[in-house]
Design brief:
This protein has helices at about 1-15, 45-70, and strands at about 35, 40. It is rod-shaped, with a radius of gyration of 23 Å. It is mainly alpha-helical. It is about 60% helix and about 10% strand. The longest helix is centred in the last third of the chain and has 28 residues, at about 45-70. It has a domain at about 20-70. The chain is built from two helices and two strands, in the order H-E-E-H. The relative contact order is 0.14.
């Protein structure tokens, strides 16, 4: 029983001393308009900028999550 108590204390201290990590918030995409035309779609310049920003935010989020997962290995 004494060994179990010591083991639990060691686990508790190891957990408290370990480097904490924070899971980042998932990015909220900004809405933009896409216009349907015959034979395809059309995105205005402002919408294209918003789409690029959304994709960059998702890539940054994926990179942060990848770093966290690699750190947990």
């Amino acid at each position: 029983m004494k060994r179990l108590g010591v083991f639990l204390c060691v686990l508790l201290l190891a957990g408290c001393l370990g480097k904490p990590f924070v899971i980042p918030d998932e990015p909220i995409p900004t809405r933009f308009k896409i216009y349907q035309i015959e034979g395809g779609i059309c995105i205005d310049n402002q919408g294209l900028g918003v789409l690029r920003s959304n994709l960059n935010d998702l890539k940054a989020y994926a990179d942060e999550m990848r770093k966290i997962l690699e750190g947990l290995k």
